[in-house]
Amino acid sequence: MPITVFAQSAIQEYKLSNGLKIIVQEDHRSPVVVSQVWYRAGSIDEVNGKTGVAHVLEHMMFKGTSKVPAGQFSRLIAAAGGKENAFTSTDYTCYFQQLEKSHLPLAFKLEADRMANLKLTKKEFDKEIKVVMEERRWRTDDKPQSMVNEAFQGAAYRAHPYSRPVVGFMNDLENMTYEDAREWYQNWYAPNNATLVVVGDVKAKEVYKLAQQHFGKLKPKVLPARKPQVEPAQIGERNVIVKAPAKQSYLLMGYHVPAIVDPENDWEPYALEVLAGVLSGNPASRLNQKLVRETQLAVDASAGYDILSRGRLALFALDGTPS
Q1: Range of lowest pLDDT (9-18, 33-42, 183-192)
Q2: Angle separating helix axes 104-116 and 72-79, nearest 10 degrees
Q3: DSSP string for 11-54
Q4: What is the pLDDT of residue 223?
Q5: Shortest CA distance to 194 belongs to which of 116, 308, 120, 262?
Q6: At 199, is the secondary structure helix, strand, or coil?
Q7: C-alpha distances in angstroms, 154 versus 100, 161, 250?
Q8: Rounded mean pLDDT, 181-198
Q9: What is the pLDDT of residue 229?
Q10: Burial environment of residue 293 by CB neighbours within 10 A (0 to 12, 13 to 18, 19 or more)
Q11: 250 near 144, Cβ under 8 Å?
Q12: How much is the CA Rg of the chain, to the nearest whole Å?
């Protein structure tokens, strides 16, 4: 039986004087590099009446600067043979590019430019908000399982912002203005609220020098104070029934469990991560074997747990489609 051994290089960490964190891992197996900029701003930082603004701003980040017109960011990356995208979560917003290694300066140049010089206009916002509203329709409003998940989050959390959908409520999107998006950008998009992650066929020290060249001149900002957000203890079982047009029923249930806070001393999150793998980590796992194959009670069944949470709250979820 052949034995494969991978040599994994150490992760190098740096920090610029303006607060930008840099994480680099060298991987020389192919001449490719992945560059990511993570902003510590997600739906957890939103307020009532402006849900979805973090995700809307993610869309607006492709609408150009004074140097790079709207739509040109993606064209420049594609012309270099690369691909790019972005995603928003409860805890963060991330932008990434995958390129041949010689084009890393292009990614840094473009990301540094829109970190500080984004042009937010009413004209572009009015067009893009319609795209986001349509995204909500086909990802949530037209999908029964997504409707159940949104109701589940709202039931699991009563006071914490994790109760609100990342895409935002439709009423908030309908009443959102480009000033709301601009406020979000001005509040959170700064080098001292971002982390640059680079993995690929690069030299860590050269990445640091390149980052210093493109991001080093950007000025840090005074970030808004983040208020403590504590979820009151749940004192009884909560049930929600969602009625939606669907061919099959769907069940989603969850338990409040610890999230990792102290990686060196916490043990429960690691046990929960293992439990999720035992229950549904692969086709031979417990839930699939017992509920789907043997008893045929369900068409599918799975478990999930996210060990990392900026809100320091977590759920252990179980879901399935009854036969």
Answers
A1: 9-18
A2: 170
A3: EEEEE-TTS-EEEEEE-TTSSEEEEEEEES-SGGG--TT-TTHH
A4: 97
A5: 116
A6: strand
A7: 43, 9, 17
A8: 98
A9: 86
A10: exposed
A11: yes
A12: 22
- pTM for this prediction: 0.93
Per-residue pLDDT reduced to its tens digit, 223-262: 999 988 889 999 999 999 999 998 899 999 999 999 999 9
Which H or E element spans position 276?
Answer: helix 268-280
- In whole angstroms, what is the distance from residue 124 CA to residue 72 CA? 14
**pLDDT tens string 205-218:** 999 999 999 999 99
Confidence of residue 162 (pLDDT cuts 50, 70, 90): very high
> What is the enclosing helix (H) or strand (E) of 7?
none
Task: Quote the tokens at residue 87.
Answer: 């995603």
pLDDT at res. 142: 95
Whether 87 and 38 have beta carbons less than 8 Å apart is answered as no
Q: What is the DSSP string of 93-138?
A: EEEEEEEEGGGHHHHHHHHHHHHH-B---HHHHHHHHHHHHHHHII
Assign 91 to helix, strand or coil. coil
Parallel, antiparallel, or unpaired for β 298-305 and 314-322?
Answer: antiparallel
58 has catalytic annotation: yes
Beta-sheet strands, E only, within the chain: 11-15, 21-26, 32-39, 83-88, 93-100, 194-200, 251-257, 298-305, 314-322
DSSP state of 164: S
Residue 229: what residue type? Q
What's the rounded Cα separation, in Å, for the pair 131 and 141? 14
In degrees rounded to 5, what are phi and psi of residue 44?
-65, -25
Q: What is the pLDDT of residue 68?
A: 96
Give the angle subtended at the CA of 200 by the CAs of 80 and 74, to the nearest 5°. Answer: 30
Residue 245 CA neighbour count, 13 Å, CB half: 2
Q: Which residues contact 263 (CB under 8 A, 6 or more apart)?
A: none
Q: Which of 46, 58, 111, 124 is catalytic?
A: 58
Report how far residue 281's alpha carbon sits from residue 129's, in angstroms, rounded to the nearest whole number: 37
